[in-house]
């Protein structure tokens, strides 16, 4: 793969084979060449779980202490008073039948998060095959199937991120922007690590977190010292 000059220059500023504590890694990241836009900062895990086993699938959500820096578009499946509450909380799209029809007819997914009241789930089932593969299907496990739609909308807008293991046992988080101060990024990252540690399956034998790394949109990944960062997150 052909790499950009900025990417190659960044590679010269640290040892890609080494693992670093979080403060060191963020220091390297801040010294990398920047893009002309505000890059997203990402945290990646490779876990020792077997995603084929139901009790080892990691899926939940987390409210980042300092938000994600992303403008989040929220759709709410609700009617009546709950629809009014969703609109008042700042939802971008609110409705039921007309939204389901638009998704069915056009394959439309012009939103980042979908929230629904429990009574709407039977109607939303019609578009589960469209929303599910894109990670947009409301789910009670991550707080997007709820009667408290106002809080769900505010949390989504305020930095709630959903996460789940993929087929290769990886987890991916958006933890902020390059413009964030280092201490804000550090707080967000440690919150993610703490959440993942709490999600450790009881049935798992052997190593849980095999590797962690951080990167920005155009930067190389920096390996984190799993033991050091985990200890920091548990303080």
Explain this structure:
Helix 3 packs parallel to helix 7 and helix 8 packs across helix 9. Strand 3, helix 3 and strand 4 form a beta-alpha-beta unit. The chain is 34% helix and 20% strand. The radius of gyration is 19 Å and the shape is globular. The chain is of the alpha/beta class and 235 residues long.
The rounded distance between the terminal residues' Cα atoms is: 40 Å
Q: In this structure, how is the largest beta sheet organized?
A: 4 strands, antiparallel
Which spans of ≥5 residues are poorly predicted at pLDDT below 50?
none
What is the helix/strand order? HHEEEHEHEHHHEEHEEH
Number of contiguous helices: 9
Radius of gyration: 19 Å
Order of strands, main sheet, comes to: 7-1-8-9
Hey, roughly how much beta strand do the residues contain? 15-25%
Mean pLDDT: 95
| Number of DSSP strand runs | 9
Oligomeric status: single chain
Broad shape: globular
Question: Which features would summarize this protein structure in a list?
Answer:
235 residues, alpha/beta, four-stranded antiparallel β-sheet, three-stranded parallel β-sheet, 9 helices, 9 strands, 20% strand
Brief synopsis:
This protein is an alpha/beta fold. The chain has helices at residues 5-11, 22-31, 80-89, 97-106, 121-124, 128-131, 149-158, 182-198, 226-233, and strands at residues 40-47, 59-63, 74-77, 93-95, 113-116, 160-164, 170-177, 209-216, 222-224.
Give the topology:
Elements (H helix, E strand, L loop, with lengths): L4 H7 L10 H10 L8 E8 L11 E5 L10 E4 L2 H10 L3 E3 L1 H10 L6 E4 L4 H4 L3 H4 L17 H10 L1 E5 L5 E8 L4 H17 L10 E8 L5 E3 L1 H8 L2
Parallel strand pairs: 3-4, 3-5
Antiparallel strand pairs: 1-7, 1-8, 2-6, 8-9
């Amino acid at each position: 793969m052909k790499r950009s000059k900025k990417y190659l220059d960044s590679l010269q500023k640290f040892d890609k084979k080494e693992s670093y504590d979080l403060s060191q890694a963020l220091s390297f990241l801040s010294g990398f060449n920047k893009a002309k836009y505000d890059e997203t900062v990402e945290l990646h895990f490779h876990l020792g779980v077997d995603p084929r086993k139901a009790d080892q699938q990691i899926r939940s959500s987390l409210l980042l202490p300092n938000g994600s820096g992303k403008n989040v578009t929220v759709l709410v499946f609700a009617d009546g008073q709950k629809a009014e509450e969703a609109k008042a909380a700042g939802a971008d799209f609110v409705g039921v039948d007309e939204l389901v029809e638009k998704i069915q007819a056009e394959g439309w997914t012009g939103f980042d998060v979908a929230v629904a009241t429990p009574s709407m789930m039977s109607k939303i089932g019609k578009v589960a095959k469209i929303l599910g593969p894109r990670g947009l299907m409301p789910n009670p496990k991550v707080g997007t199937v709820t009667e408290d739609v106002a809080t769900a909308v505010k949390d989504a807008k305020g930095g709630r991120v959903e996460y789940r293991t993929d087929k290769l046992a990886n987890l991916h988080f958006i933890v902020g922007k390059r413009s964030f101060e280092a201490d804000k990024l550090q707080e967000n990252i440690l919150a993610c690590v703490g959440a993942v540690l709490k999600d450790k399956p009881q049935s798992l034998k052997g190593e849980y977190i095999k590797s962690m790394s951080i990167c920005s949109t155009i930067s190389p990944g920096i390996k984190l010292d799993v033991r050091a960062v985990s200890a920091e997150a548990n303080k």
